[in-house]
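Hi D.,

Good news: the full-assembly prediction came through. Inputs first.
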Amino acid sequence: MTTKANSTLLYDGSDWNFPILEKTYKAIEEIAIGDLGLDVYRNQIEIISSEQMLDAYSSVGMPLMYQHWSFGKRFARDEMMYRKGYQGLAYEIVINSNPCISYNMEENTMAMQTLVMAHAAFGHNHFFKNNYLFRQWTDADGILEYLQFAKSYIAKCEEKHGARSVEEILDAAHALMDHGVFRYRRPPPLSTREEESKRRERQEYEARTFNDLWRTLPASDKNAAVSDSEEERLQRRKLLKLPQENILYFLEKFSPVLEPWQRELLHIVRTIAQYFYPQKQTKVMNEGCATFVHYYIVNTLYDQGRISEGALLEILHSHSSVVMQPTYDDPRYSGMNPYALGFEMMCDIKRICTEPTDEDRQWFPDLAGSGDWRSALRYAWANYRDESFILQYLSPHLMRKFRMFLIADDENESQYQVKGIHDEAGFRKVRAALAQSYEIGRLDPDIQVVDADLKGDRCLSLRHLALDRIPLDTKERDQTLKHLRRLWGYDVHIESVDRDSGALISEARLTGERLEASIR
Amino acid sequence: MHHHFIDRRANPKDKSLGNRQRFLRRARARIKEVVNKSVQDRNVGDVAGGETITIPAKGIEEPQFRNSRHGGNRSRVFTGNKEYVTGDQIDKPQGGGGQGGKEGSDDGEGEDDFRFSLTREEFLDMFFEDLELPDLVKTSLQEVHSVKMHRAGHAASGTPTNLNVLRTMRNAHGRRIALHRPSRAAVERLEREVADLRAKPVLDDEEQVRLAELEPQLEALLRKMRVVPYIDPVDIRYNRYEARPNPNTKAVMFCLMDVSGSMGEREKDLAKRFFMLLHLFLERRYKRIEVVFIRHTHHAEEVDEQTFFYSPETGGTVVSTALVEMQRIMKERFPSGEWNIYAAQASDGENFSGDSALCHELLTNEIMPLVQYYAYIEILDEREFDIFQDARSGAALWRAYQEVADGWHNFAMKRIAKPADIYPVFRELFAHKAKERVG
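Then the structure:
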C-alpha cells in the first residue's frame, strides 16, 4: 500500500519508539531553529509513565522537590480526578532548567509526542531562555543543583529535628510563600557549594546583627514610656530594612526565635518562590509562545509531507481543545484561557505583520506590514510580560473576535455596569483593564512588613495596601497570621489600608492564641 | 546541538509515596472517623474496595494572604458579548446591595471538604488500625512448618549451579595482584621480542646479550604464570542457601450459624456483617484464606455462601451438630499443622435442652486445642439486650460457653443487637491488649 508520497513520512500509525522520536525531533528542530529562528537550551526529554506524571504533578512539576504533605494532598486529589476521569493529565511538563527537561508520557501516541516536543522542548524552552523576566529572575543553570541541595538539607533536618518540627516551619513558610519574593531587585545567582558556605556565613552574620539589633533595647525600668522617639524609630527601621515586601526574607533575617536550620528552611522556600515568580507573570505569553510554535511546526511538517493527514488531524483535535475559549455564559467559563488568548495574540501579530488592515496600520504603525513576523514575535517573547504584552499588542481585531466586554463591579452598587465593549470607544478601556488583571500586584495582595515594636511587646506589624478597596480573605488571613506568629515568635498585627485614601479598612491582631479582628 | 531522550519508565514509580504518607498521617484522625463511619453505615463488602472519601479540610488547609472574592471595586473583562452595549446595567445575582449574607455560602462546602481516594490497603489499614490477631504463635506442639530456601551469604563449597561468578572473579583478581601474576600483555610483549630476535638470521653482539637476558626472564614469567593460576580453587565461592521455616500463611475460617426458624432476616444480616468483617481482617494477615460455611438446625451441613445466608431452613436447634461437622472438616481438609484455624459462630442463643453440655465438652476437648481463635456472637433482640447486660446471666448455651471462655483465653464471646454494635464488639474482641486470663 505504500505510495511514493509515504516515503517522506517520519512515521505512520500511532506507535512510537526511540528511533522515530529521534528522527522526528530532528525534523522539528530544523523548523524551530532554521525557520523560526528559536534559541533554546539543550533538550533533555524524559519518557515517563502516567503514574510518574502524577508524581511530577504533585511536586509543582519539579523533580527533586523536597517532601511535604501538601504535595501528597495535591497528588491525592489529582489522582482521584484522573482515575475517575474528571480530568486528563497534561501531555507534558517542562522545567525551566539548563538542560531544559521536559517529560513526555509514554501513553501519548506518536502524533502527540510530536506536538509535545514542538510545544515544550522548543516553544517553552525558547521562552525560558529568552524572556527577560526569566533571564533576570531565575537561574536555569543552578536550579536542579539547588533543588538537590534543598531536598537533602530538608531530609537531614527531618532526621535531626524530627519530621513534625520541620513540617511546622515548612507549613508556615508555605503560607507566606507568595510574599517571599523580591519584586524589584534581582536575586543573586544560585550556587550550591557557595550556598553551603554562605549558610555558615549567614549564621555568623545573623548572630552579629542580631545582637546589635537587640542592644538598642533600653535596659531601663519597665515603666518607662513605651513610645519611641522618632529618631529611634527611624534607626530601627533602617536596621530592619523596613518597609520590607519580602516577608520570608525579613523573618529569615530578623525573627528573634528561629534557629539557624529554621532560617535555612525559610531561605529554601523563598528561593523556590523566587524561581516561580516569573512564571506567574507570563502565563499567557509562555503558553501562547509554545502553542504558536507547535501549531506552526506541525503544519509545516504536514506541508513538507513528513506527517500524515491523520497525525495532523489528531494533533489539531487536541490543539483546538486546548485553545478553546468558552464565552462568559458558558458553564465551562472560568475566566480567560491563557492558551487561547496567548495563541490568538501570537497569530494576530503574524497577521498584522503580513496582512495588515487599515485599522492595524493605525494601531500598530511600526508592526503593520513589516513582513518579518518571526523577529517581531521573538522580540515580543523576549521583552514583555503578560501585562505589558497585552497592553502593547492586543488588537481591536482580536477584541472583536473574542467579543470582549468590560464590567465594573462596585461593592456599593446593586448592579454591574458595562463600561466598555469591543467598539471604537471601548477598545482602549477594555485592553487596559485586561492588561491590568494580569498585573502581579493585583494577583497577590500587596503586603509589607512595616514595623516591629522591639521596645515594647515585640509585635510585628504588617500593612496591606488594598487596591480599589479589595479586602483580604479574612478567614485565610487569620490562619496565615498564626503561621506568621509561629515564625516571628511574638504578637503579629496586620492592617488593611486603602491605597489611594490611606483609610483603614480592617485590622487583625494575634496575641497568643487570641485573635482580635475588626472591620471599618 | 545535541540532545537526548531518557527513558525513565523503569524508575521507581512511588516517588511521591513519602508525601502521601505525610499527608495521610496529617489527616489521620479525620480519615479514620470517615472510614469507621462508612463501615457502620454500609455493608462491609462494599467499602473494602478502596474508595473515594471526603474529609473536612480542617487541618489540611494551606492558607495564604489572598484577595477576597468579594468587596471592593473591580473591573473584569469577559468574552463572548452578545447584546451588551456600553452603559448597560446588569443585575447582580442574589439582588440587593449587601454582600454580607452570601459570604460564607459562596466559597462554602466545595472548598471546605477535600475529596480523594484511599487504596484498599490504606482503607483497611486505617480500619483495622490497633487491632491485633490474638496469639499468632500456634499452640499445637506437632506443628509442622514448611521450609523455604533463603540466600545466606557465600560458601567455599557448593554445586556448580550456585557458583557466584562475581565473587569468585574478585577473589581471583585479588590473589593475582597479591602474588604478582604477570599480565598477559607483559608476557606477550616479551615473547614477541624474543621471537623477533630469534627470527633474525644474524645477531649482533648487543642483540645476543639482549636475547640472553630475555630468555631467562621469559622463562621465569611463564613459570610464574603456571604457579599462580588465573583462577585457583581457593578463589571459588558459591551462593549459600539456608532452609528457613516458613511461617504458616494459610488460614481457614469457619463460619457457623444457626439457621433455624428463630433466626430471622435481621439476625442473619447481623451475623453476615460480623463474618465479613472477620474475613476482611484475616485477609490482611494471611496470603491465602479459605472460608467454610456450616449451617445447622437440628443437623448441620457445609454449604456455599449463597445458601448459607439466603436459603431458608426449618427445624429444631442442636448446636453441637455444627461443632461435630466442623471437627470432621478440620480433620479431613485442614490439618492444624498447616492451617491457622479461626472460627466464628453466630446464634440467637437457643439450643436443644441438654445439648449445651455436649457443646462445652466438644469445644474444650476437641476443638479449642486446634484453633487459633474462636469467637461466639449471640444475636439478641434489642429488648433482650437490655436485660442481658450482665455477661454472667444468659440461656443454657451462653452459660456453657461462659465456662469454655473461662478455660481458654482464645475463646471470646459477645452479644450484639444492632448493626452499630458489631464494629465496637469486633474491636473489643481483637483490641491489641494483654489478656488477663491465662489459658
